[in-house]
Amino acid sequence: MGMVIIDGSTVRAFVGDEEQFKKSVDERFAALDLNRDGVLSRSELRKAFESMRLIESDYGVDVATPPQELTRLYDSIFERFDGDGSGAVDLEEFRSEMRKIMLAIADGLGSCPIQMALEEDDPSFLKRAVDLEASKLGEAKP
Ligand SMILES: [Ca+2]
Fold it and tell me: Domain range holding 84?
């Protein structure tokens, strides 16, 4: 486990890197589409959020949250993702909502860096953002 410093610009650079961001989001979508029907169902999306740890870190939910409340929360997230109300989230909807969420995180972080503990194989998008920044810094060195 390593400690990394992350701020809004790290996240914004990741979202702004069309190729990297799209690749990360598309990979995640494919991994989450468990029955491979090309869309995310309510339960697939719920699993997504459980695995991404976005809920704990970004929605401020702690482990003591009652199950009914969590279900309500996941329902409201699903409805946000399912922009056209079709009952399933397609890749376009997933991309656009992930972009909004990451930008909201960036705004939340602002220019005030926070220290985060990340596992080397951490699957979160924040880890991707940090890796991308690190690789760019690496390239900039003589
Ligand atoms: Ca599916």
Answer: 2-140
Total number of domains constituting the chain? 1
pTM, to two decimals: 0.78
User: How far, in Å, is the centroid of ligand 1 from the Cα of 88?
Assistant: 8
Tell me the pLDDT tens digit for each residue of 118-142.
777 776 788 888 888 888 877 755 5
Which domain CATH number covers 91? 1.10.238.10
CA atoms within 13 A on the CB side of 68: 0
Task: Tell me the residue type at 32.
Answer: L
Q: What spacing in Å lies between the alpha carbon of 13 and ligand 1's midpoint?
A: 30
Using the Cα atoms of residue 116, residue 117, residue 123 and residue 128 in order, give the sign of their dihedral. positive
Residue 56: exposure state from Cβ atoms within 10 A (0-12, 13-18, ≥19): middle
Distance from the CA of 6 to the center of ligand 1, in angstroms? Answer: 33
